[in-house]
Amino acid sequence: METVNTMNYLFAAYAAIWIILAIYIFSIHSREKKLSQELQNLRQLLERQSAGRR
Amino acid sequence: MDQPGPKRFDAVLGGLLFVAMILALYMAFLGAPRERTMGDLQRIFYFHVPAGMMGLAAFAVNFFASLMYLVKKDRKWDSLALSATEIGVVFFTIVLVTGPIWAKPVWFVWWTWSPRLTSSLVLWMLYLAYMLVRSYVPDPDRRAMMSAVFGIVAFVDAPIVWFSIRWWRDQHPSPMIETGGLSPAMRPALYTCAAAFLILMVYLIRRRYFLESARLEAELLERQADLAR
């Protein structure tokens, strides 16, 4: 069973693990960035609204 | 991003995760002995099994958080349930991808409808449906309530996944740790990889939880901005 071919399977399995994890961590990171910008915009909007009412 | 949690703890956890993953890779490829029949291919085991164990642990966190939401009606439990589910689905994706890659050269098929494999696929699909259902319910309270009930019901499949290889004849290997089937020389590598995946699970759930908290804050601010108009 131990041929070059089985080493390809081992490589494929570990590559898949790191690719899945990398995609997920990247997706969390991009969602964090987008949300951070959205929160900043909303806080600024609320500040402007409360300043306009004063 | 403004994280409500202490940043120092995250830095320590991130550092610990990095060291644990390096150690896990070292143990899986160099620390563990070469298996007699499968050779180096068996090294898939050291990441495949911990991913499955921690995936089940993440779904158990969802089960606990869903129960807590039904009791306390506090939105933070719903956020924790969702965070744990996402990580559980990621870990089970790893299991369902690495399993067939390992099976093909050993069983000569990519997939077989054995109890362990089928129940694992069903579990993954159930929690995928959990996340899908959430995205179709706009009302936050209704969404949290429905998700909590769904999460509790879906968890029924988790013990079936765990015990399937004990209850039924299965092509999948039978439990090796508790029956002593795993060579003592291989155990340190498995335990190191399991510890690394545990740290990874905590790190990811924590990060996803803060993301969900920030999303809820944005939802609240949006409502305030709409009211002030």
Walk me through what this model shows.
The complex is a heterodimer of chains A (about 55) and B (about 230). Chain A is an all-alpha fold and about 55 residues long. Chain A contains one helix and no strands. Chain A is rod-shaped. In chain A, about 5% of the residues are buried. Chain B is mostly helical and about 230 residues long. Chain B has helices at about 5-30, 45-70, 75-105, 115-135, 140-155, 155-165, 185-229. The longest helix of chain B is centred in the C-terminal third of the chain and has 42 residues, at about 185-229. In chain B, about 40% of the residues are buried.
In short:
The complex is a heterodimer of chains A (54) and B (229). With 54 residues, chain A is mainly alpha-helical.
Anisotropy-based shape of chain B: globular
For this entry, what is the oligomeric state of its chains? heterodimer
Order of helices and strands of chain B: HHHHHHH
* Low-confidence residue ranges of chain B: none
Distance between the termini of chain A: 79 Å
Question: What is the number of strand segments of chain A?
Answer: 0
Biggest interface reads:
A-B, 31 and 37 residues
Strand content of chain B: under 5%
The helicity of chain B comes to: over 70%
Give the terminus-to-terminus CA distance of chain B. Answer: 27 Å
Radius of gyration of chain B: 20 Å
Largest sheet of chain A: none
Structural class designation of chain A: mainly alpha
Low-confidence region ranges of chain A: none
How is the main sheet of chain B built?
Answer: none
Which key features would you list for this structure?
heterodimer; A: 54 residues; mainly alpha; 1 helix; 93% helix; rod-shaped; B: 229 residues; globular
